[in-house]
Amino acid sequence: MHHDNPTVVWLGLTFNLSNVLMLSVTALIVFLIAVISTRKLSVKPTGMQNFMEWVMDFVKGIIKSNMDWKTGGRFHVLGITLIMFIFVANMLGLPFSVIIKGELWWKSPTADPLVAMTLASMVVILTHFYAIQMKGVKEYGKDFLRPLPFLAPLKIIEEFANTLTLGLRLYGNIYAGEILLGLLAGLGLGSAGILGFMGVLVPTLAWQSFSIFIGAIQAFIFVMLTMVYMAHKVSRDH
After folding, report:
1. Which run of H or E residues covers position 90?
2. What is the pTM assigned to this prediction?
3. What is the tens place of the pLDDT at every residue in 94-127?
4. How many domains are there within the chain?
5. Which residue range forms the structural domain that includes residue 210?
6. Most exposed of 43, 79, 181, 208 (fewest Cβ within 10 Å)?
């Protein structure tokens, strides 16, 4: 079912208040996780510290699978931030949604194409920024002419294609999951009797679990592709 987004116009710009709220909540949750995990560091990690170290090692493995650590180590914090932010963002709209007067306020921010495409665009822009910073403008420009100069237009098209696929893959999977969960929940509320309700509740919970898995996989894929694109830009052996 379609619901309107709460918006406000400020200085001639239209802001989606739902996106602002959900992105703020996501950032706050990630910040709290980071603070709690590193508040009392010990030589023998337990609890949240153990979880954070696992995330750090996991992202380090992603980076090392795409480039040498001397080059990719500087992107470690970026990878950790992305995987935690996107995973939390993917999860927020799964338990429930909040609709007030026909306006959808609580949802996964990554279920909005503007948010997903903004994240993808930011990542692609960063790959170009670091390529210029680490290799210089001259060497960066030469990469578009390799292996053959006449392929340069195709490489430019590839950059736009990478941005689209990175953003739309994330958006499509999360949005589709929320829509199906909403439909299943609606069927459960409209079912007559306890048997009808249970008949809808079981597949709803099953799909909820599957959606959590998909949300985690999408966060992993986003970070993996980010490091793949980064490696192709900053590594001199690509």
Report:
1. helix 76-92
2. 0.85
3. 776 677 777 778 888 998 899 999 999 999 999 9
4. 1
5. 7-234
6. 43
